[in-house]
Amino acid sequence: MRSPADAAPSYLYLPELGAPGATVALPPGEGHYLVRVCRARAGDRATATDGRGAVAVLRVTTIGKSVEAVVESLERAERSRRAWVWCGPPEGERADWLVEKLSELGVEVWQPLHCERGRWARGDGRGVRWRRLAVAAMRQARRRFVMEVRPPLELGEALEQVPPQASRWLASAEGTRAPAAAGGELAVAAVGPAGGFTRVEEGWFRERGFAPICLSDGRLRSETAALAWAAWWASQ
Amino acid sequence: MRSPADAAPSYLYLPELGAPGATVALPPGEGHYLVRVCRARAGDRATATDGRGAVAVLRVTTIGKSVEAVVESLERAERSRRAWVWCGPPEGERADWLVEKLSELGVEVWQPLHCERGRWARGDGRGVRWRRLAVAAMRQARRRFVMEVRPPLELGEALEQVPPQASRWLASAEGTRAPAAAGGELAVAAVGPAGGFTRVEEGWFRERGFAPICLSDGRLRSETAALAWAAWWASQ
Asked: Tens of pLDDT along B97-144?
């Protein structure tokens, strides 16, 4: 079923894509994937992204100890819409698949939040794992931007850093059902930890212009609410 | 922090709720949960659903070998909106958390579909596990309806059974972005297996009036598309 001139399913992640005409040596993981999984041969084409908006067509030139390819063409794009998700810790390991799903849906920034009722554990290698999941999901969805995984922030600090032009959303069972579209170029959503935000924290969000949005007629877990918001945003 | 007269976090699943005034013996699992986890005592109140629209306030009367309660009041409701999700098999065990999430979002029916490019495995106890997950998620979300888990159907058979009044949606990267609301009292969504529906299958859906809907600007995995559709529906 394989087309001989196109390692079609391949979608590589090369953070350092060269300009058209440049020869790039593939990182070992990507080279292995291309040759062993996609069964590429010299002369085949493959697609690659740098995760920062560029997508290139490569032609494989060398297969050996190192896999090399030449950049045939390259196209760069800007994000037209951006979404950031701020989230308190859900229960257990549920954040792992949340990171995967948010990345698939095209969220720009994953921002874990330390909250009164839930703090993210430190030094458990989560950041590294999340970055790997975000890259894998970007490839799966054939996106040109990799989701940025930020280190956890105190809620108060995060609030100091909301870009002024952002539309702001607070996941809340008491919010508005089916509000108008997210609007604007950047949307920021805040989702509480498993135990929810405190009333004081909710007050901070309201003072900063976060609009409460109700995403379901039932009570949602943190990770479900975060995903439901991202799906609502992505469907627009 | 516990209020002495109300085992507040309790939300029990009692498929056979009696009429007001009746005494019910709790199934062992629910009795254990109420007494050991919620620390209920005789005289305390608890909330229970039958998963078919009724929610009752119970008063605990006996704690011993068996836990008994009297139904103080009972309120029954109909579903005002209903959603069915038809889904070909995603990769690995991803259907498990999908079942949990669809249940949290209030989907009425989970219908696994056998498709040309993916068939559900037989006899692996999935149905039993899914029903357990659906009940747990209903309790978590404090809903009054439990999601119905149906056995897998051939796509052709499923198509014979679409209720005529249902609005119909086909998750497709080539569909319409942000269509009007799902509309109607019942909405049915079809999502392909990991390898996607074939062109022939897509044709069958179109003949039956399924409207292609694009849920993201990237390629979504089966379980992500199913969830994104349900979140879109739930947000309305």
From this structure: 999 999 999 999 999 999 999 999 987 789 999 999 999 999 989 999
B225 sits in which H/E element: helix B222-234
Amino acid in the structure at residue B25: A
Q: Is A140 on the interface with B (CB under 8 A)?
A: yes
φ, ψ of residue B39 to 5 degrees: the values are 55, 40
Scan residues 26-85 of A and list those with Cβ closer than 8 Å to B.
none
In chain A, residues with a C-beta closer than 8 Å to the C-beta of B220 are 104-105, 141
On whether any CB of chain B is under 8 Å from the CB of A108, the answer is no
Sequence-distant (≥ 6) Cβ neighbours of residue B152 within 8 angstroms: B112, B113, B114, B119, B120
The tens-digit pLDDT sequence of chain A (236 residues) is: 344 455 556 899 999 998 999 999 999 889 998 988 888 999 999 999 999 999 999 999 999 889 999 999 999 999 989 999 999 999 988 999 899 999 999 999 999 999 999 999 987 789 999 999 999 999 989 999 999 999 999 999 999 999 999 999 999 988 988 777 777 899 999 999 999 999 999 999 999 999 999 999 888 999 999 999 999 999 88
B176–A contact, CB cutoff 8 A: no
Give the list of residues 6+ apart from residue B116 with CB closer than 8 angstroms, or none.
B155, B197, B198, B200, B201
Task: Name the residue in chain B with its Cα closest to that of A236.
Answer: B178
**Contact present, A55 and A49 (Cβ < 8 Å):** yes
CB spacing of A104 vs B220 below 8 angstroms: yes
Cβ <8 Å between A104 and B216: yes
Full DSSP string of A134-185 = HHHHHHHTT-SBPPEEPPPEEHHHHHHT--TT-EEEEEEEEEEES-S---SS
Pairing of strands A67-76, A54-63: antiparallel
Among B216, B221, B236, whose Cβ lies nearest the Cβ of A234? Answer: B216
Counting Cα atoms < 13 Å in the Cβ hemisphere of A205 gives 25
Chain B: residue nearest A234 by CA?
B216
DSSP SS3 for A129: helix
For chain B, list the strands marked E by DSSP. Answer: 6-13, 23-25, 45-49, 54-63, 67-76, 82-87, 109-114, 148-149, 153-154, 167-177, 186-191, 211-214
Chain A interface mutation, best of B105, B213, B233, highest count of A Cβ atoms under 10 Å: B105
First to last CA, chain B: 36
DSSP state of B33: I
For B106, the closest of A97, A217, A221 (CB atoms) is: A217
